[in-house]
Amino acid sequence: MGMWEEASDPVMGKKDKNEERKERILNLTLEIIYLLTGEGYVIPKKKSPTVGLGALHAPGSVIQKENDKKILELISNIIQLLTGEVAIRCEDVSIYFSLEEWEYIKGNKALYREGIKEEEEPQQLRPLGE
């Protein structure tokens, strides 16, 4: 187990997958904070008496999906800061640009769009050597 990982609570029983995922993300975040600052932090767990069942987000809810998307964006920003690269993913292909290359691409976005529109015309495949 990592520095902040805990075994599942015997009183509460086995945790569901979503709860385990949340705890793992929080533990990894605490480890990152420790590595950045050299200081350990503890997040106290407490149940709010004012939170009703309606305030909880179901695993497939729109709010949960938006939160997951925002978390991925923040993680992507952290990766960009650490590596100095911007990752672009399309289906099964990933391309990594340096931050300098990415700024150039963003600055010349209109030129790339024009080039893509020109290439949308179907092209004939020709055997090599012709």
TrEMBL record:
Coiled coil: none annotated. Pfam families: KRAB (PF01352). Residues 90-118 form the KRAB domain. InterPro entries: KRAB (IPR001909), KRAB_dom_sf (IPR036051). One of its GO terms (biological process) is regulation of DNA-templated transcription. It comes from the Eukaryota. This is Gastrula zinc finger protein XlCGF53.1-like. It comes from Xenopus tropicalis (Western clawed frog).
